[in-house]
Amino acid sequence: MINRHVISGICGFIGLSLSAAGIKHLLVSNDMWSIIFPLLTFSSLIMGIALYTIKGIGGFRTSQRRFHLLRGILGFAGISFGIYGLKFLNLGLFQILVNLYPVLTLVLAVLVLKEFIGIRAWVAVGLSLAGVVFAFDPKLEGGVMVLFPLGVAVSLAGQSIIVRLRTRDTSLVWAFYTELTAAFLALLAFLAWGNGRLPFDEPFLFFGVALVDGISIFLITHAFHGDLAGKIAPLAYLSIPSGALLGLLFFGDPIHWEMLLAAALIIVGGVFALREADRVSEDTALSRGWSKALTREI
Fold first, then answer.
1. What DSSP string runs through 18-75?
2. Backbone phi, psi, residue 243, to 5°
3. What's the rounded Cα separation, in Å, for the pair 13 and 219?
4. Is residue 247 within 8 Å of 91, Cβ to Cβ?
5. pLDDT tens digits, one per residue of 29-56
């Protein structure tokens, strides 16, 4: 049930919650474009150094340029929507809305990847969505700003499906080119709309956020690259309780009983989804085994 891809997904989604908390703090004294451009640039630099160290110059070769470009555009849109949403929304509410993304991912997995998603996985997602409903405190008003975290959800779902659709390149190559493309687009936005200042007044916080964000993006990419979307996508719900906890610790955002109930439902749903995905994998492997045996006999 638990493998390295699942562990990567868990650490990656919790890491995104931590980087979101850091970004929300940086937004207090910095322009959003002044954060997005250097954040993505530093992240892509880390990925590039890692790729060169492991694979050498040949590691940068790819035959999936159009898909890397598309994923980079989605990545830029996602982080832009995300930072704009973080600027105006409670961190817990933001994480709740962003985490509608597993549902979108599962729907796209069925429609695009033709991946079989068992009924138990849908039940698991239903449990987690019930947690989302309970955690959605009506006192947390967001207005039109709720569209921004929803935009992040669409972006994340699209990125996840692209990685599963084109598995030829390694996880690190996917993460590098996504961050590099997004960083270039962020540079153009910074030059057009930024205030010309970079967020280096708190260098320890900034580079810490950039490092955590880059590692988290790689871990999530690696998780989707190596395992079923039906197994990895529901793990994203872990960032709701972790986001609420970090909001409490760093910003004093209140945690209501609804969020505690949501956390319980989310954890139960995540475990349920993992067990279902393992069952589907075993059934598929068994079916293929019978098919090969029958072919040999014929």
1. HHHHHHHHHTTTS-HHHHHHHHHHHHHHHHHHHHHHHH-GGGG--S-HHHHHHHHHHH
2. -65, -40
3. 8
4. yes
5. 888 888 888 989 998 998 899 899 988 9
Q: How far apart are CA 63 and CA 80, in angstroms?
A: 27
Q: Are 160 and 229 in contact (CB under 8 A)?
A: yes
The two three-digit tokens of residue 169, written as one number: 């390149």
Residue 112 DSSP code: T
CA distance 211 to 226: 23
Contact predicate 262/131, CB 8 Å: yes
Largest CA distance in the chain: 72
The pLDDT of residue 256: 66
Q: Domain coordinates of the chain in residue numbers? A: 4-297
H-state helical runs in 56-170 = 65-88, 91-98, 101-111, 119-135, 147-165
Give the global pTM: 0.75
